[in-house]
Design a protein that fits this description.
heterodimer; A: alpha+beta; four-stranded antiparallel sheet; 3 helices; B: mainly alpha; two-stranded antiparallel ribbon; 2 strands
Chain lengths: 112, 373
């Protein structure tokens, strides 16, 4: 089964680390992306770059800022192939944002 | 039987339907042909075969059955078949923290306790329709998210065991507040867990805790009135159940268990003694508070300190707690102030507690205390 890991970060959590710690965290993200079970991953630019788009009655409404008005910001995702939810949860615990004030939402993908 | 079917079929609904069909077949055949030598195995094999038939009919075999190549068991080979006990896997599936707690409780009672949906609905004061929806949502999530039918890996086990024990204790406490016999059901589940995990001290600790509390249930009320521990008629206590609880507790202690359930069981055991060693009780609450960081545990420690004779010190502990919305903080303060002869303050504290009291017996109890001042 494939699971999406939606990474919700505490804003500024990387900047709060020392330079060495930042390097170590970055290496962890890269290692996860290179795990043989990884099927895809992406890191988003910071929240300040977000633009939200809606179409109402044929009119495009474009606004500055992210869609979700939450303390944590959606910062990126992985997709992993895992046997079951326990394996997926174990992978999620290894994503640094999870232990640095953020949270990972684990969602299975629709199988086609 | 259900556990083994869920394990075999990988599907709760299918397993339940197959089990029901097997019971129906048994009801028809056993009176006519006699009860088979191994009724449990007969039922399981019949249910499996029925389920396989059904799946074949529905032509969704490939997705639904994990072990297609398993040959169908024949009825005359029954005595050689060992039905694998897969109840432990079922426990961890039902008590998976990815499910809502209320769903974990309902699933556990349904799948392990064998209660009907209607019984569970009645126990939790919701409509049968609501409970049915709650159960099917949980089953759908198990299927859609791939919650495994498995005992968790070593490194996940401690957390997951805590979750499973919390579900059983929650069921017990629902029963303790006077509804259907959920307390008895929780104890039965606790016994099953103790058989399945004989070397986990916290499992034994929880079982011991439930048994010792349950043994005092008849003395806890006089008619509809609450009776405090010190005023309880001990001849109403179930000595055999206390004994069974202490046996479980001793085993947990021998396994070097010092977790929260073991500590609470040890406290309950001390409180069931003829002469209660309140200093020891207070010390155990102190250790429990260190693990749980719970102000409610600190409040209990204060009560033990007062019973050991240091009312002033107990009041100091109580006044240092951040528990303003908690009824028992105020009733305890009332009692301590009464003992210190500070009647006016005692009355105010009792009245404060009365504002929070949720059950009728508790309200009457507090009103009596105020009247006695």
């Amino acid at each position: 089964m494939q699971y999406a890991m939606l990474i919700h970060e505490k804003p500024g959590y990387v900047e709060a680390l020392t330079e060495d710690e930042q390097k170590a965290v970055f290496a962890e993200y890269v290692a996860l992306a290179q795990d043989p079970r990884a099927r895809g991953s992406a890191q988003l630019q910071p929240i300040e770059t977000a633009t939200t788009v809606r179409v109402q009655d044929g009119q495009t409404l474009t606004t500055d800022g992210p869609y979700a008005d939450t303390k944590e910001a959606f910062g990126g995702y992985y997709v992993f192939e895992a046997d079951n939810l326990d394996e997926a949860i174990e992978l999620a615990t290894r994503i640094p944002a999870a232990r640095l004030g953020g949270a990972i939402e684990v969602r299975p993908l629709v199988e086609r | 039987m259900l556990a083994s079917l869920v394990g075999f079929l990988g599907d709760f609904d299918l397993a339940e339907e197959a089990a029901q069909e097997a019971f129906a077949v048994a009801a028809e055949r056993w009176p006519r042909d006699g009860v088979p030598a191994n009724p449990g195995a007969w039922l399981t094999v019949t249910a499996r075969n029925r389920a396989i038939d059904r799946i074949r009919r529905e032509r969704t075999l490939a997705t639904k059955v994990r072990q297609l190549e398993v040959p169908e068991a024949k009825m005359d080979e029954l005595d050689d078949i060992v039905i694998e006990d897969e109840r432990l896997e079922l426990v961890f599936t039902c008590c998976h923290p990815a499910l809502a707690l209320e769903a974990q409780v309902a699933l556990t009672l349904r799948a392990l306790g064998g209660l009907t949906t209607e019984e569970i609905a009645r126990a939790f004061l919701v409509s049968e329709e609501t409970m049915k929806r709650r159960l099917s949502r949980a089953k759908a999530k198990i299927k859609a998210t791939g919650i495994p039918f498995a005992v968790p890996a070593e490194h996940q086990l401690p957390d997951r065991l805590d979750a499973a024990l919390a579900v059983v204790y929650l069921i017990y406490n629902e029963g303790y507040s006077g509804r259907i016999d959920l307390a008895g059901e929780a104890i039965r589940l606790g016994r099953v867990l103790a058989v399945l995990m004989p070397d986990e001290p916290e499992v034994l600790g929880l079982l011991a805790l439930m048994l010792i509390h349950h043994a005092r249930r008849k003395a806890r009320f006089s008619g509809d009135e609450l009776v405090l521990l010190e005023d309880q008629d001990r001849s109403l206590w179930d000595a055999e159940e206390i004994g069974a609880g202490r046996t479980a507790l001793e085993r947990a202690l021998a396994l070097r268990g010092r977790g929260p359930y073991v500590l609470q069981a040890a406290i309950a055991s001390l409180q069931a003694e003829e002469r209660i060693d309140w200093n020891e009780v207070a010390a155990l609450y102190g250790r429990l508070a260190q693990i749980t960081h719970s102000p409610v545990v600190e409040l209990n420690r204060a009560v033990a300190v007062a019973q050991a004779g240091s009312t002033e010190h107990a009041l100091e502990i109580v006044d240092g707690l951040d528990l303003d919305d908690y009824q028992y903080l105020h009733s305890t303060r009332g009692e301590l102030l009464r003992r210190l002869g500070r009647t006016v303050e005692a009355r105010a504290a009792y009245e404060h507690a009365l504002e929070f009291a949720s059950s009728e017996p508790e309200r009457r109890f507090l009103a009596r205390r105020i009247a006695e001042l």
